[in-house]
Design brief:
There is one protein chain. The chain is built from three helices and five strands; from the N terminus they run E-E-H-H-E-E-E-H. With about 170 residues, the protein is of the alpha+beta class. It has a domain at about 95-170. The longest helix has 22 residues, at about 70-95. It is elongated, with a radius of gyration of 25 Å.
């Protein structure tokens, strides 16, 4: 019977075989699975006092009520799930969804940018006698909803133009 665990970094369910044993790194985000630091939050008054002492030892301050100054991080977990659902809706409507080169999540299209004009000087390879791209070009920008890496890709119309310009008739 296969067992599973959840990666504490990307929240991906990792299923592993009993014969092979647990993974040491997440196959999705490649972060180390062991040694993940966590804090337990107590609900009793005695536990709150212990928690304040523990927080003080970690350099984290709690206010007079025993609440965390960063209480929003606990509420933010629900917001993270809502953001994930929103990202999934956006991905379903995109024509292309490149994979993030950092964490391998699908990236969200953020917009497009035209590059060219006065600030852009196209290189003209001697072998072709003309530039490899038209001026201006359009670049699509993508952002990863998990690690926030930003990446760009040549727009489809300019990719087709690149292929035409590189084709040498002999």
């Amino acid at each position: 019977m296969a067992e599973s665990q959840v990666c504490p970094w990307c929240m991906t369910d990792i299923v592993w075989d009993e014969e092979i044993g647990p993974e040491s790194h997440c196959p999705h985000c490649e972060n180390k699975l062991s040694g993940y630091n966590s804090l337990s939050i107590g609900l009793d008054n005695d536990e709150e006092r212990d928690e304040e002492e523990q927080n003080a030892s970690y350099g984290q301050a709690a206010d007079a009520d025993g609440d965390w100054e960063d209480e929003g991080s606990l509420r933010g977990m629900g917001a993270g799930l809502a953001a994930e659902a929103g990202a999934q809706l956006v991905l379903e409507q995109q024509l292309e969804a490149p994979e993030c080169p950092v964490c391998r999540e699908y990236m969200l299209e953020a917009g497009e940018q035209q590059i060219g004009g006065e600030g852009f000087k196209a290189t003209i390879p001697a072998a072709l006698g003309h530039s490899i791209l038209p001026v201006p070009i359009t670049v699509n920008w993508y952002v990863c909803p998990s690690c926030y890496h930003v990446s760009s890709q040549l727009a489809l119309s300019d990719r087709n133009e690149l292929a035409k310009r590189l084709h040498r008739e002999e």
